[in-house]
Amino acid sequence: MQTSKFNDYSFPDNSGHFENYGGCFVPETLIPALEELEETYKKADKDPEFHKEFNYYLNNFVGRPTPLYFAERLTKYLNGPKIYLKREDLCHTGAHKINNALGQALLAKRMGKTRIIAETGAGQHGVATATVAARFGFKCVVYMGEVDIHRQATNVFRMNLLGTEVRPVTAGQKTLKEAVSEAIRDWIASSGSSHYILGSALGPHPFPLIVRNFQKTIGEEAKKQILEQEKVLPDALIACVGGGSNSIGLFHPFIKDTGVRMIGVEAGGNGEKLGEHAARFSGGRLGILQGTKTYILQDENGQISNTHSISAGLDYAAVGPEHSLLYDLKRVEYTSADDNEALEAFQILNKIEGILPALESSHAVAWLLKNHKQFTKDQTVVINLSGRGDKDISQALERINLEV
Ligand SMILES: *Cc1c(COP(=O)(O)O)cnc(C)c1O
Question: Are 298 and 369 in the same domain?
Fold first, then answer.
């Protein structure tokens, strides 16, 4: 059944490329830190002790494996396909991000670093990083745009409770992109003592490789769980795509299983014009941003475009480089759901399944609500529920008029 085209899929190559994408476009001064990280990671990956330690904390601190939950009522509501939810929303701190933050904290420990740097948009990655920093006793600084600091005051307080210093970034749009730049600047000056925990499958090599491998536990578990419950592989996997870490984590262990469709859902925002969305594959083109070559939303002069999404986690101009390759290879279908569709899915999952999804994850659910007729009643799909929506309640309150 399997075609040979993907049987020898093994990216990135030694130079960190996914064919045309990825690579390592950074100032010379950062190269030693990236080389140290790559070397440490490659050694750790071959060391059973490292995997034992990682798995110990995944199981006992993060709460893995997360359930693969049969959404019986949503399945009935749509009259099929059979819908399974991969419950990353049940992870400690509320999303898949902790899988990666934990793995990188263990690498930082191996490198003898004493301080952690991170960037955060909505605060999810910041909270995950602050959490592992507290657990392992690292000093921790999180860069966050000033606009985001005001929008996400409770997450700032949460990081502070965990002993992390949140540093406001006032450049440009004062959001995630500028926060990443500040974090990189800090790292250039401090890499002797500090490790930079990048939050998605983005940035210069080796980050897209490392983040994907720490997240692929999602797909490995899902594969085992669906085979236990359904005895066959699913017909489709659906995940939202911000930087691309929860989606690549789910997709990667299935790349060679070409009978399994894979659908990546980007943020359609509130319109199709540049600046109104974060759909990189329909509106972007090849460029370089923050260390990696990939699809990027930019204007005709190559200026990075503003983006919009109701979900901060999907609101970024670049997509992880492995997704660009999977797009070219047509192995993953990339599409989008807009703000209103995500809000609708957010409500339906609450009402029908008793589950409060993150607005990011609601984009994946929204795609299926719109496209369920592509499947027959007895086909099965797995939706990655990347996080829980407690963080989104006040935003939803502003947007949803409930008729009670
Ligand atoms: C950050 C985040 C995302 C988007 O990031 P990816 O790297 O694309 O996974 C999606 N869902 C949730 C809940 C998030 O916190």
Answer: yes
Provide the pLDDT for residue 3: 54
Domain stops at, among 211, 232, 263: 211
Question: How confident is the model over 303-355, as pLDDT tens digits?
Answer: 999 999 999 899 999 999 999 999 999 999 999 999 999 999 999 999 999 99
265 - beta bridge partners?
240, 335
* 313 Cβ closer than 6 Å to some ligand 1 atom: yes
Residue 231 in domain: yes
pLDDT band at 1 (very low <50, low <70, confident <90, very high): low
Q: Is residue 365 part of a domain?
A: yes
Q: Mean of the per-residue pLDDT values for the chain?
A: 96
* Angstrom distance (rounded) from CA 192 to CA 112: 9
Kindly give the interhelix angle for 48-57 and 97-110, rounded to the nearest 10 degrees.
140
The structural domain count of the chain equals 2
Cis omega (within 30 of 0) on the bond before 168? Answer: no
Q: In 259-404, which ranges are E strands?
A: 261-269, 285-289, 292-296, 333-338, 380-385
Domain of 254 in residue numbering reads as 65-94+216-399
15 in a domain, yes or no? no
pLDDT recorded at residue 396: 93
Rounded average pLDDT over 45-62: 98
Q: Note whether residue 16 is domain-resident.
A: no
User: Has 386 been annotated as catalytic?
Assistant: yes
Q: Is 377 among the catalytic positions?
A: no
Q: How far apart are CA 324 and CA 304, in angstroms?
A: 17
Among 191, 194, 305, 386, the one annotated catalytic:
386
CATH number assigned to the domain comprising residue 38? 3.40.50.1100
Q: Does the pLDDT of residue 68 top 90, yes or no?
A: yes
Distance (angstroms) between ligand 1 centre and the Cα of 248 equals 11
Please indicate whether residue 360, judged by its CB atom, sits closer than 6 Å to ligand 1: yes
